[in-house]
Amino acid sequence: MKFERYGIGIARGMMVTFKHLFRHPTVSQYPEQRLNMSRRTRGNELIWNNVKCTGCVTCAKSCPQGAIHIETTVDPATNKYNVLKIEVDTGYCIQCGLCVEACPYEAIYMGYSVERAKYRRGELVQANEMLLASPDRPASGYMNPHIARELPRQTLLVEKIVEKR
Amino acid sequence: MTIKTEPFVINFGPAHPSTHGVFRMRVVLDGEVVLDLEPVYGYLHRGIEKLAEQRTYTGIIPLTDRLDYLAAMSNNLAHCIAVEKLAGIKVPERAEYLRVILAELQRLCSHLIAVGAFLNDSGAFMTPILYMLREREKILDLFEMLSGQRLTYNDMRPGGVSQDAPEEFLPALHKFVDQMPRYLDEYDQLLAKNEILLARSKGVGILSKELAINSSASGPVLRASGVKWDIRKAEPYSIYDRFEFEIPTGTAGDCYDRYLVRMLEMRQSVRIIEQAMKQFPSGEYRSRVPKLIRPPVGEVYSRIEAPKGELAFYIVSDSSIAPYRYHIRGTSLINLTALRDMIVGWKVADLIVIFGSIDICMGEVDR
Ligand code: SF4
Ligand code: SF4
Questions:
Q1: Contact criterion met (CB < 8 Å) for A6 and B195
Q2: Domain that holds residue B144
Q3: pLDDT digits (tens, 9 = 90+) for B302-314
């Protein structure tokens, strides 16, 4: 290839790189600085509400991975289902959120936290009380706008980087 | 004195940093010149087509996320459009606009990675791709706001989108669209006239117009060879017929043209998003669809213009809750079929540049 004046293109490119020296940094130092996640984050656990749940098993049926296992009995006095056992294998769960979408009684939520690594495979299988909401297991606003409103606003990079050009 | 030489076979990949995943090329070399090339696929085969035949039509959507994982929204869209055609489901206006915005954002996102990785392969190590990832991050923020996930969105549903856009979505999108053209100018300034890039990619890896058509390549690879073919214009799906945009084409069909077509397409995508934002209506975001869709007996072949080219789904229904046959036309796989013709005769260093300019995603090649 022939160029008339070699080096102009490179110099123009280096100008851009040089400008970046004076710009706002984009990266945050993770464990010390944390950004807020989306209000609809699908974290890696499920939250279950034992009061609202009626044992209809819609969530287990709609799960594409077969990660939810529910056992129920019928209470002869009230003719309602009793949930004996609900077990979620978070190792199989792909956090797709279809169970949350399917539940007709808003009794199951995605978790808001994401740092849930475990040391053993067995600890990923969570059952009954382990699935209930607690202060360190907050529910996310996925498919539940009223929960989403309470959660902190998501940090957006578009708003963080303001540059004069 | 003459030195005796003989062809030498090397395995390029499957775990090589410039093969963009687990792709293997069996290359026959004579010194540095490539004499022959045989692509070997299948290291990432997960049997998605077969898995899909045992899942409900909604349950397949998380699977489509994992096809071309750099453009999950487009895959969602293609699947949903196919199911809607099959079952005769109507989509509300607002959902259509949201879908177009998301698909175009996804195109930006995928092209940023494609261009960045291509520049990385051709020697501009890490600086351009990091600048491009910064813009991609802003798009991922928007996707995260909508769907809660940054890579596997699972956001669209037959009959609309899963959730409405929150009120902070449009202002953030406005900010992004305002900034993006200036960043695109900056990328042009950074490398479009760079002598090293020009020398390494101009005239390299030419895919002729005839071969591009005969190998049924699509997307930027086809358009760089000078064929004006874009399904958004040729066979408008969703509401693409309401927007004004151009189809950028190349002339030579070399690596530089493929790079340039992608850069120009990004500007067109920004244009479409701007128009869609102006017309964005209020109202329903999802039509009423039964939880288990049972389409009537029949078959459908529906295609969209995904970032990497023509993405199509062929679904046969036997009126049960799961498809009888589910076939995916993987864009990258078909673009790869012309790989041998592009590369043979070039040097090893060009092989990496040519391969990078096709922009493949192994998740879609192997399925
Ligand atoms: S999030 Fe998806 S994979 Fe996980 S339990 Fe719910 S439906 Fe199953
Ligand atoms: S769908 Fe909801 S109500 Fe029914 S069993 Fe699951 S969590 Fe309980």
A1: yes
A2: 8-366
A3: 989 888 888 999 9
